UniProtKB/TrEMBL annotation:
It comes from the Bacteria. InterPro entries: P-loop_NTPase. This is AAA family ATPase. It comes from Spiribacter salinus. Pfam families: AAA_30.
Amino acid sequence: VECATIFSALGWRIDEKRGEVRRTGRHRLHGHDAIIVDEASMVDQAMYEELMEQTENTDTPILWVGDPAQLPPVKENSSPVFDRVQTQVRLNTIVRQAEGNPIIQASQYLRDCIEKNRRPRISDITTIEGDGRLSIIRGGISVMADYLVDARSHGLDARAVAFHRRMEDRIGQIAASRFHPPGSPRMVEGDPITMSASYGKEISNGMEVTVTDRGETLHGYGPLEIDCQRVEVKVDGTHNMHSLIVPQDSHAHEVALRRVRQTRDRERRRSRELKNTEERTQAGIAADDAGILAQEITDTYASVRYTYASTAHKAQGSTYEVAIVHWDDILSAGNETASR
């Protein structure tokens, strides 16, 4: 069985600089007996149309597996899968959670609200009885960060969940400041981190990893001559281990890289605009030098961010021992969807 992300299967990738989707080569949809697409609720209009177009002249059946009550694609009200696929079967037997689990009752209540287009009320959820696995806490993002830090300090795999990226960032920043006060190592064992850029051939942008060991401190390391920390990480959901060189001061690293790239782009423009041949040549050399330095910086230092919090879209399908959900932020997203 061949497994791939839908982006990889379609021959797509995200341009890290422009934030755009680009085609990188041929798709991988031919030559299969069947295609199974999981998490179909996240398939947007462009993905659906591209996949259907690429398989239009084949006899390959497509099995869509998803839940219309789960999150829709980003910036869309629903996935076209549930509107355009004619044969649909609804599964009613719950096998993932133990019978009587309060999570099931809460999920069924929320599903009922979604299907009846009714706003869920937190007072209804508080009446669900259980064994302590479902709790309602009151307070803002600082309180969420407190619970998150407490859970992780007790060895639990905990994650805060919000709908908006800005809220995810704010909660994550508060938690990071408590785990890593000024003067402490930037990375410690157990830290959940996400790659902000590709690193080497095997670690891609957006990949989630966990720090398994904190290695030596490297002083004045690499082309920027900055203090760094060597860490060993494990790619989440796999047994793959990798070594990263992480700058101790992430801000200084990011600012330096941004300035080098700005120099490269500026000199490239000058090399195209200048009339004088010698000046144009010098600008081209300066652009090449800055480009080489930018690549060396990218290859040397790992660009990472803490993943104490996630957006609901990113967290969908994941399993955590403790999930701390920003209820108001989730509801505000529902209001935005309704207004669209």
